[in-house]
Design goal:
- By secondary structure, the protein is mainly alpha-helical.
- The protein has eleven helices and three strands.
- Strands 2-1-3 form a three-stranded mixed β-sheet.
Length: 322
């Protein structure tokens, strides 16, 4: 964006909560509660993974990255929302908006890639159990996590760079609750063809392809589970990937609603609700999904609290089996 364009819009106004005329204190407390639960829940899982030797396995290595990612995801949007509620002014500066969009898209892309890697981890654990630790060595895990982060950051940098070349001609009211590419392009007054093509390309490489890879992994996993003769064995095998599968369905399902739905027939209230569910509520749910029925995580928590007499399980060769 050139100097002239930068002076046209110095700040944006969010309209996502413009319809909340009553009960703003309740909405503020709701967002604050969700944010604190998100931080505490994900921080707890991350701490257990770091401190407990029995959780030092590929599965929990990637889960630790997911927990850190979820904390970052919420921290990109919620604090600004809370500050705006306090000062009763739903605004954000131009460069704050660009920064928020960059980090938001980085987190979204990294989570899609990380969920794909975690699906491959479950495929390896169930379909190739004898070679699990050999295939997913520490070096391979670090490489996969690094590539997931770098790929997401690169894609986000491209979108943000293209966004800074867009002119807004004084239009600064965003029909959203945070800065994202689609709502910004809706108020642009310059040609956004390249930006839209970049979004479509990203939806394929950052959204569709990872989702298809997850489906392929779980197809092989399902076939392997069906070949297990004992009911107990099938239940244990499915338990190793059930939580991840739920997270995948929620994340990609809400992501599809957030980015690929038709604009006609959707109100500002619906947009606000879907965006809140996708970027704010989902990161809070992940630690509960992964811990409620996960005996490894619950065992690590008991050990951390000193309840050793209730945790007599020995280390497992198949991490995450309930």
């Amino acid at each position: 964006m050139d100097g002239a364009n930068q002076t046209q819009v110095t700040e944006f106004v969010f309209l996502g909560f413009s319809h909340v005329l009553q009960g703003q204190a309740f909405v503020f407390l709701a967002f604050l509660t969700i944010y604190l639960i998100t931080l505490l829940g994900n921080c707890l899982i991350l701490t257990l993974i770091v401190l407990d030797p029995q959780l030092h396995s590929p599965m929990y290595f990637f889960l630790g990255h997911l927990s850190f990612l979820d904390m970052s995801y919420s921290s990109v949007t919620v604090p600004k929302i809370l500050v705006n509620f306090v000062r009763q002014r739903e605004t954000i500066s131009y460069w704050e908006c660009m920064a928020q969009m960059f980090f938001l898209m980085s987190c979204a892309g990294a989570e899609a890639s990380l969920l794909t890697v975690m699906a491959y981890d479950r495929y390896t654990a169930i379909c190739k159990p004898l070679h699990y630790t050999e295939i997913l060595s520490r070096g391979v895990c670090i490489s996969l996590a690094t590539v997931s982060w770098l790929w997401a950051i690169l894609a986000s940098a491209i979108h943000t760079s293209l966004a800074t070349d867009v002119s807004f001609c004084g239009a600064n009211q965003i029909h959203h609750i945070f800065c994202d590419v689609p709502p910004l392009l809706k108020i642009a007054c310059s040609d956004t063809y390249i930006n839209e093509m970049a979004l479509h390309t990203a939806s394929v490489f950052v959204g569709l392809i990872p989702f298809l890879l997850v489906l392929i992994s779980y197809t092989y996993i399902l076939l392997a589970i069906l070949r297990i003769r004992s009911d107990t064995g099938r239940r244990k095998a499915f338990a190793t990937c059930a939580a991840h599968l739920v997270v995948v369905i929620i994340y990609f399902g809400m992501g599809n609603l957030n980015y690929n739905r038709p604009s006609a027939g959707y109100s500002l209230e619906v947009d606000t609700l879907i965006s809140a569910l996708y970027c704010i509520l989902t990161p809070m749910l992940n630690p509960f999904i992964y811990s409620l029925r996960n005996q490894d995580v619950k065992g690590a928590l008991r050990r951390a609290l000193g309840w050793h007499e209730k945790d007599n399980a020995s280390p497992r060769t198949q991490p995450g089996v309930d």
